[in-house]
Write a structure and sequence with these properties.
Length: 119
Amino acid sequence: MAIKLTAAPFVFALLLIGLHSTDVEAASTQGTIQNMQVDAKGNFTFTLTGTPNLCANGNLANNRGSVIVGVRGVTAEGARAIHATLMSAFLSGKSVVIITDETVTTTGWGCTVYAVDIF
């Protein structure tokens, strides 16, 4: 019985690798939350203690992280989850790692945040 190999699985794997490799992020920044500002739409911005830069392309300031619904795939539910994580870290004094996007800017709020680690 002969086995026929097709290119489809290999092409699919290459596409996945290509999608992952285009996921550009700034250097992850670690710190504790200094302050937060939330608007009526559920978008918010924050800084870390000592106000380190979170990206190189923030519209307002490179030391402000921003989570904007609709930017970089952030949903309202995702924004609430990130906000809850950051508030938990703020209230408990735990450190966070902020992951920003160097290619997507927001509407003047600072660096686009799309992931947060708490530890």
